[in-house]
């Protein structure tokens, strides 16, 4: 009798514990699982004008990162990637900052002091140096490199468009400096079939894929300073071109 009573009591306790655990799990799931309103609130904040597009390195991007880290911390997510930031204290390691991860990026570009460009006409010609800012200008998407005695080759508009069966490059362009015209065969027509290839980045990709050592775009302006390409700027959404690129 005592054994049956003990068994019945044990089963009741186990059942209560099981029900309690099930109830706790259901409650926890209800708290963690976001509803439509929660999702809408998150999206509205992250897409709001306050965050100004969340461009890398901008105050808006920092606000977005802090917001997401706070939500991760509130939901108790385990941090499986990233690393502690330099100088982070023990207390901060238990804060939303533990979800932060540093990474390098280019915020802008400045003109270096060692930029030089010279060319030689013919085998016996004397080198002619070009003045930076007046005769030539490296572009913001250019990489840093140095090479000597490279042959150059004119490549028309410097466009490779497979879908249009158009290719300015031949195998001879490999390991040479590509000299290309600005613009496209469409001229000033913004709706032409080559319109998208007017962007210098497309020309740089074509030159890189053809194996060229560098790419120089011949300016349409008589005065280089009037050419929009000569204004040093950097678009961090596209990164570097993978080869030296300049405007002449």
Low-confidence stretches: 1-30
Mean pLDDT figure = 79
Order of H and E elements:
HHHHEEEEEEEHEE
Question: DSSP strand (E) fraction?
Answer: 5-15%
Rg on CA atoms, Å: 31 Å
Number of alpha- plus pi-helical segments: 5
- Strands ordered across the widest β-sheet: 3-9-8-7-4
Number of strands: 9
The assigned structural class equals: alpha/beta
CATH topology of the largest domain: Glucose Oxidase, domain 1
**Cα shape:** elongated
> Can you give the helix content as a percent range?
25-40%
Query: How would a textbook summarize the main sheet?
Result: 5 strands, mixed
Instruction: Output the CATH class name of the largest domain.
Output: Alpha Beta
Summed up:
The chain is built from five helices and nine strands, in the order ααααβββββββαββ.
């Amino acid at each position: 009798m005592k054994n049956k009573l003990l068994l019945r009591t044990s089963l009741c306790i186990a059942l209560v514990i099981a029900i309690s655990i099930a109830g706790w799990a259901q409650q926890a799931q209800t708290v963690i699982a976001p509803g439509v309103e929660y999702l809408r609130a998150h999206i509205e904040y992250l897409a709001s004008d306050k965050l100004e597009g969340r461009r890398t390195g901008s105050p808006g991007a920092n606000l977005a990162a802090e917001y997401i880290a706070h939500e991760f911390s509130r939901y108790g997510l385990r941090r499986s990637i990233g690393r502690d930031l330099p100088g982070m204290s023990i207390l901060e390691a238990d804060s939303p900052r533990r979800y932060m991860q540093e990474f390098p990026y280019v915020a802008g570009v400045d003109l270096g002091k060692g930029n030089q460009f010279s060319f030689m006409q013919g085998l016996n010609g004397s080198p002619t140096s070009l003045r930076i800012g007046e005769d030539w200008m490296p572009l913001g998407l250019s990489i840093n490199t140095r090479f000597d005695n490279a042959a150059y080759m004119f490549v028309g508009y410097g466009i490779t468009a497979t879908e249009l069966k158009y290719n300015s490059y031949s195998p001879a362009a490999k390991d040479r400096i590509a000299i290309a015209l600005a613009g496209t065969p469409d001229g000033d027509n913004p709706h032409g079939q080559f319109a998208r290839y007017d962007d210098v980045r497309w020309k740089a990709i074509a030159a890189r894929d053809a194996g060229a050592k560098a790419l120089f775009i011949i300016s349409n302006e008589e005065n280089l300073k009037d050419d929009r390409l000569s204004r040093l700027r950097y678009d961090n959404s596209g990164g570097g071109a993978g080869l030296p690129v300049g405007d002449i």
